[in-house]
Design brief:
single chain, 272 residues, alpha/beta, 5-stranded mixed beta sheet, Mit_KHE1, K+-H+ exchange-like protein, transmembrane helix, membrane
């Protein structure tokens, strides 16, 4: 599966890194993930899989349960305890860095990436910034993952209280989030190591390339996992940005044109 990534400056030295979501793509991990503990145990015990595969299955099972519980809180009536917990959760989620959300979007199903960027940027700089965010993500999220795992036994002690154990579920979510971001960082770093040239060759170059293909079939048969693609449409939407960065109207237009999450993109503009 190819993922479409968008890279563009949004305010000063702050760049936006976001994945374009296909509105027609149906992502349903619950279709292959067991919905009950008995089904999970049966799937793990009946199939001989590596420990890593069983661990991912367990994480997907927990994630599916957390998503269903979150949707239940979202539908709670106004003024109820569940509704207040949902409001608190939204405030906590607003503090999650956009780079973490971006890295989490690079799932294990992604086999290649298409990087769309304005032609005013140097493609080598675009690739370098992508590599930097992937390398820093492997370091940061590995450290935060270990810290979150350490806090899980401590927050589980609040289970004795009659109130919902919000600290435990928040730390559990952060553990899952850092683990996904770490997996995405490693995946992105691997994908961008094999890129194609953003320039389109002319007819003469095509003939030379055809001759080279006959001489080196093995080298050319390997399709790149990272394609850099300049976009004139994105360049026109960006226009002349002021010192304060892109305004919200421009960001909304970019999000509509390239199917981005407006809330995640706006976070990049508010970074210090």
């Amino acid at each position: 599966m190819r993922a479409r990534l968008l890279v563009f400056p949004i305010k000063g030295k702050n760049w936006c890194f976001s994945r374009s979501v296909d509105p027609f793509a149906a992502q349903s991990p619950s279709g292959v993930t067991p919905t009950t503990v008995r089904g999970l145990w049966k799937k793990i015990s009946s199939e001989s899989k590596p420990i890593n595969a069983n661990a991912e299955l367990l994480v997907d099972f927990i994630s599916d349960k957390m998503n269903k519980a979150w949707m239940g809180l979202e539908k709670a009536p106004d003024g109820s305890i569940k509704n207040k917990i949902h409001g608190l959760g939204l405030k906590l989620l607003a503090r999650v860095k956009p780079s973490e959300i971006f890295l989490k979007s690079i799932s294990k199903e992604v086999t290649s990436v298409q990087v769309t960027y304005p032609p005013s940027l140097d493609p080598r700089l675009v690739r370098r910034r992508l590599r930097h965010i992937a390398m820093s993500g492997t370091i940061l999220h590995k450290k935060y993952l270990m810290g979150s795992v350490t806090l899980l036994p401590l927050t589980s002690a609040f289970m004795i209280l009659p109130l919902p154990n919000i600290p435990f579920f928040w730390v559990l979510f952060r553990t899952y989030s850092h683990w996904r971001a770490l997996q995405g960082s490693e995946k992105l770093l691997k994908l961008i190591s094999n890129q194609s040239s953003p320039q389109k060759p002319n007819s003469a170059d095509d003939a030379d390339e055809s001759n080279n293909n006959n001489e080196k079939p093995e080298q050319e048969s390997r399709s790149p996992t990272c394609v850099l693609l300049p976009s004139e449409e994105l360049y026109k939407l960006l226009g002349e940005a002021s010192e304060e960065g892109l305004d919200e109207e421009t960001i909304v237009e970019i999000c509509k044109s390239f199917h981005l999450n407006k809330i995640d993109v706006l976070k990049y503009r508010n970074l210090v």
